[in-house]
Amino acid sequence: MQKKLFKNCVYLIGAGPGDPGLITVRGRDLIARADVIVYDYLAAPQLLRHARSDAEIIYVGKQAGNHALPQDQINALLIEKARNNNTVVRLKGGDPFVFGRGGEEALELIEAGIAYEVIPGITASIAACAYAGIPVTHRDFASDFALITGHEDAGRTGDSQVDWASLGKWKGTLAFYMGVKNLPVILGRLAEHGMAADTPAALVHWGTTTRQRTLVGTVATLPELAIEHQFKPPSILVVGKVIQLRDRLSWFEKRPLFGKRIIVTRSRSQASDVVEQLGQLGADVLEFPTIRIEPPKDISPLQKAIDNLIQYHWIIFTSVNGVDAFFENLQKQNYDARRFGHAKVCAIGPATSERLKANGIRPDLIPPRFVAESVIEALTAVDDLKGKNILLPRADIARADLPETLKKLGADVDEVEAYRTVMDASPKEAALKAIAEDTVDWVTFTSSSTVRNFLSQVDKEKLTSKKIRLASIGPITSETIVKAGLNVDVEADEYTIPGLIDALCNASD
Predict the structure, then answer these.
(1) Is 40 annotated in the active site?
(2) Residues 143, 116: one domain?
């Protein structure tokens, strides 16, 4: 049972450390139900996908020397939006009450008579260290753990709120937030108050994200190393003996695609599964949707085929999109899976097969390879196609070789348009900028149409850099890439999304 959501209420939600998967269930549910979302620089943008399409989204991020909105104006904004009978989500990086100024915002809400709720988040120091292979406590190295702001004015001395005398003698682990700017001062004060110069110290930049970098040194050496390796905010500074365990416990940065920037060109509706899988393997994924799936301009041929479904001996589904479009219209015509009668079903590819099963149809045949030749071989091995009625519901731009070969074998083929594939011309600034800056490692293509539409929006010359490489899902897609004058650097052995991902992992070894 869902908790009641109150209007005139502000929910102070910890967005976690950067990995969008680390949001709490409660936080995610509130994002999905909010009228207004006010979010920070360190809150993962992917979390906004959970928001309602009509939600008002307001960015108030703060970076060094660049505040989208001062804190007092943020407080006023939260009060104003709540008073207008809105459910307001205040999405803050990490945890709202750990150096997130959530306490200040809560006090302002109380003063204004606005109800509020705090939804804790995973704080950055613990999470970033965990993803860097640094346990903040360990019974052999550290029995205590302290969180300290590293953003205190470097000029403060006697009135400092940080107890440097105690921290200099600290035996456990210290984590400093926002400490890169004052790094020499912080480590210098620890040394002044008794901490050994060779005490391990580390910086974790953009912890838990695919941009994570970890730099290990000592209290004495880390400031110079940070300059040399150009470490900037946001970074967590960690000091303590537990850092010695990183060599053995590092796991996140050892993922097969860690740090690889990969462009996915699938349709926006189908990209989420690929993006998630690549992200779990450590890739920094940029979406560049090149196609959009739309209904046929004339739906009547598909509807007629569904009405006469009982006359077909075979129905061949070549894609998940074809299955979705077919069953959507089947239901609109008040039919269900029983309409298939005695017709046998062929599914090209495991994903198509699984989608059919989800709709109550278990395929009779799944060819071993996902090209026309293999489909024909598989069909003729189990049936004489002469005189057989075959229905082929598929895309408007599908290749003609499969129906033509079936007809040559004596089959009566009804090829009907189940869906259209049109170019997605939506803005793609992030991906285009990365291509222009030559910071992309891979561009993935899952069909010939993704190749053609991608090249219609990107200067081909920019794809011939030393860095960027092209990955194809199979030989038909590869042929289109080559005909466009480009090289295929990797082709999947199995012509599926998992096969393409495996090929990327093998090529990145």
Answers:
(1) yes
(2) no
Tokens of 401: 């070789």
> Is the torsion defined by CA of 188, 193, 195, 197 positive or negative?
positive
Would you say 150 and 239 are in contact if contact means Cβ atoms under 8 Å apart? no
Residue burial 116-138, b: 16+ Cβ < 10 Å; e: rest:
bebbbbbbbbbbbbbbbbbbbeb
Give me the domain span that covers residue 484.
261-290+424-507
Active site (annotated) includes residue 407: no
- In tens, the pLDDT along 277-308 reads 998 899 999 999 998 999 999 999 999 999 99
Query: Are residues 274 and 319 located together in one domain of the fold?
Result: no
Instruction: Point out the catalytic residue in the list 4, 7, 29, 40.
Output: 40
Residue 485, burial from CB neighbour count under 10 angstroms (0-12, 13-18, 19+): exposed
Nearest to 495 by CA among 458, 454, 447, 436: 447
- pLDDT band at 1, cuts 50/70/90? very low
Per-residue DSSP letter, 142: B
Distance, in Å, from the CA atom of 370 to the CA atom of 373, rounded to the nearest integer, reads 8
Neighbours of 321 (CB within 10 A): 23
Identified catalytic residue from 29, 62, 364, 412: 62
pTM: 0.79
> Average pLDDT of 477-488?
95
In angstroms, rounded to a whole number, what is the distance separating the alpha carbons of residues 423 and 457? 10
Nearest Cα neighbor of 302 from 414, 421, 422 is 414
- Do 158 and 192 sit in the same domain of this protein? yes
Strand 261-264 with 284-287, pairing: parallel
Percent of the chain's residues with pLDDT above 90 = 79
Q: Is 4 a member of any domain?
A: no
For 369, phi then psi, to 5°, come to -125, 155
